[in-house]
Amino acid sequence: AAAKITMDPAFVVGPVRRRTFGAFVEHLGRCVYTGIFEPEHPTADRDGFRGDVLELTRELGVSTVRYPGGNFVSGYRWEDGVGPVEQRPVRLDLAWHSSDPNLVGVDEFAKWSAKAGVETMMAVNLGTRGTQEALDLLEYCNIDGGTAFSDQRRANGAEKGYGIKMWCLGNEMDGPWQIGHKSAHEYGRLAADTARGMRMLDPDLELVACGSSGPTMPTFGEWERVVLSETYDLVDLVSAHQYFEDFGDLQEHLAAGHKMDAFIRDIVAHIDHVKSVRKSGKQINISFDEWNVWHMSRGESKAPSGKDWPVAPVLLEDIYTVADAVVVGDLLITLLRNTDRVHSASLAQLVNVIAPIMTEPGGRAWKQTTFHPFALTSRHASGTVLQLAVESPLVSGGKTTDVAAVSAVATYDAEKGEAVVFAVNRSATDALRLDAAVSAFGNVQVVEALTYANKDPYWQATADDSTSVLPAENVTAKADGGRLTAELPAVSWSMIRLA
Ligand code: AHR
Known about the structure:
The chain is an alpha/beta fold. The protein folds into 2 domains: 4-8 and 386-498, Golgi alpha-mannosidase II (Immunoglobulin-like); 18-380, Glycosidases (TIM Barrel), CATH 3.20.20.80. The chain has helices at residues 51-60, 106-116, 131-142, 148-155, 184-201, 222-231, 250-253, 256-278, 322-337, 371-380; strands at residues 2-6, 12-15, 22-24, 64-67, 91-93, 98-100, 119-124, 166-169, 206-209, 237-244, 285-293, 342-347, 357-359, 365-367, 384-386, 389-391, 394-397, 400-404, 406-413, 418-425, 432-437, 446-452, 472-473, 478-480, 483-488, 492-498. The strands form 6 sheets. The chain has an 8-stranded parallel beta barrel, surrounded by 6 helices. A 7-stranded antiparallel β-sheet has the order 2-15-19-20-26-22-23, with helices on one face. Helix 5 runs parallel beside helix 6, helix 6 crosses helix 8 (256-278) and helix 9 runs parallel beside helix 10 (371-380). The protein is globular and about 65 Å long. Bound molecules: alpha-L-arabinofuranose. The site of alpha-L-arabinofuranose has 10 residues, from loops. The site of alpha-L-arabinofuranose (AHR) has 10 residues, from loops.
């Protein structure tokens, strides 16, 4: 079977946004402690950051990093994490039933971000706290000096303000599991008040209101309507979170991108409904600030209980398969395809916790399977995202029927003179031929063609063997006379660069 694609640089969806390649560092499990931060580690620098993780973060090509949560932020006192380390309190983290020694706080994270070359996206606590604490944190972070909190930051070693632009107004406030969970109306009012104050301090901030924690939330849609009715003129983005799990039906698992696409279309409808009712000329866009494969119902996600409140326990340490990596590649394709409305996104999370990078305390760091499609897409997608005409065979499995077997997007960088096709074959069983009309680009040749697939799609990378299955050259990819053809194996992710 074949999938036919027509590509033309004239059909533009929007720019490739660097912020699509964001990630997330939460005080959760071993993401911070023994993840990004481990002073005793042989590669640690003098600030206690693991050099091996910094290097992998740069190689992953991460743009923004959301911090410090997640569910954690809804009980967080940011003041605990600043000032002399020996005076910082140990606090209970109720969200993950852990203890936090507060060795890392906003100043350490800002330092780490600078070293990693990423932009910080800060979340404020609208669970147990409110507008005043959010304003205090903003003053601490962004005012250069001459005020109580900014001088405190200077005394703590940071002369200049951090200039953090993106701020999340709370986290998953629609979720009953969230500390300080609210109704849409209660949250919308609080988010509006907080946004109003934050804008008085700095009108140029980019503010994200909490959207739904997923399409299956019973309040999805109505939540967006009510929250945006309160905040429409005060925020820039509404958040979306979505995780995918392999429940044993590979074909259904491989349809994750299709489900994300539907979720994005629904969110856009809910946003634009409010826009239309308000007769507003302003467009609110989506910050897809948590997305990934997360095998939530497996044991790895069970938080400690009872009197056990450990520091940095092993939590949510999912080990990913090649199939999971194909799904992650497809989700990134989906986010890019929707670049007109998805203006920012964060893979949740970065290290150890449902992450592309894994570490051993005191030991090795390695790449999970999901690292590869993310790193390659981040490195090579540039310029504009193109609207493709795709005719694909359909696949069905589990509860999903008639899903396009090929999910693809292309980017075109006129300056580099390079077009890149990213394509996933979602079929669990059948290889497909890609047949793309590319004559609108002139007489292009294949510069590089890589495919990530394996005979056993359940292969997993480990500390001992993370390199025996890697993206490999796809020798079948050929461009000739305005036609690009390539074999796409079942359960595969591919990137084909043309120039
Ligand atoms: O990323 C893990 C958790 O998933 C986050 O803390 C929360 O926001 C979401 O439910």
